[in-house]
Amino acid sequence: MNLNEEVELLKGVPIFAKIEPAKLKLLAFTSERMNFAVGQELCHQGDPGDAMYVILGGVADILIDSSAGQIRVAELKRNDFVGEISVLCDVPRTATVMAREQLNTLKISRDTLYRMCEEVPQMAIEMMRELAHRLEDTNKKLQAATRAAA
Predict the structure, then answer these.
(1) Is residue 123 over pLDDT 90?
(2) Residue 147 lies inside a defined structural domain of this protein
(3) Is 45 helix (H, G, I), strand (E, B) or coil?
(4) Is 91 exposed, middle or buried (0-12, 13-18, 19+ CB in 10 A)?
(5) Residue 54: beta bridge partners?
(6) Would 57 disulfide with which of 34, 97, 104, 132, CB 3.0-4.6 Å?
(7) Is the Cβ–Cβ distance between 139 and 36 less than 8 Å?
(8) pTM of the model as a whole
(9) Is residue 106 part of a domain?
């Protein structure tokens, strides 16, 4: 895949949709293209986080450790992103992300992510919106689990 094809893929990612093509080209150029085989981990819960990933193709599972083993809490597919929490909050990875099928990603380093947020505030706003939606979804699931346990 060439740089222009990566830029076209990035346009489909909601947090990058409003970024001008020249900045997307810079993002694609400064990021690392990574492929993962079925069962391979992108990151492991508890490990330090130095980058986020954008899913360009394939499907991955988000897994949380529990006393009963790993629990699948979400699925990632094309145009989703993951790993931003540990980068933005400077905390260890909050979950394990594992490829369920052949996975193609763009790995965006902490420095690149920070630079892009500074240069393109709209990207930071879109990322905050997505994080807020994820929090809302988590709260709904927690409420449902609490009601079911009562």
Answers:
(1) no
(2) no
(3) coil
(4) exposed
(5) 81, 106
(6) 104
(7) no
(8) 0.86
(9) yes
| Cα–Cα dist 89/8, whole Å | 29
* 11: number of Cβ within 10 Å: 14
Nearest C-alpha neighbor of 109 from the set 48, 63, 40, 46: 48
With cut-offs at 50, 70 and 90, classify the pLDDT of residue 17: confident
Q: Go through 20-44 and write b for each residue having 16 or more CB atoms within 10 A of its CB, e for each that does not.
A: eeebbbbbbeebeeeebeeeeebbe
Domain tally, the chain: 1
Residue 121: inside a domain: yes
CA dist 89 and 6 (Å) reads 27
Main-chain dihedrals φ then ψ at residue 90, nearest 5 degrees: 55, 50
Which ranges of 1-150 does DSSP label H, i.e. alpha helix?
Answer: 3-11, 21-30, 84-89, 110-119, 121-149
| Residue 76 token pair | 């990632």
In whole angstroms, what is the distance from residue 76 CA to residue 22 CA?
27
Length of the chain: 150
Residue 149 included in any domain: no
For the cut 80, the answer to whether the pLDDT of residue 1 exceeds it is: no
Any residues with CB less than 8 A from the CB of 47 and at least 6 apart, and which?
A: 92, 93
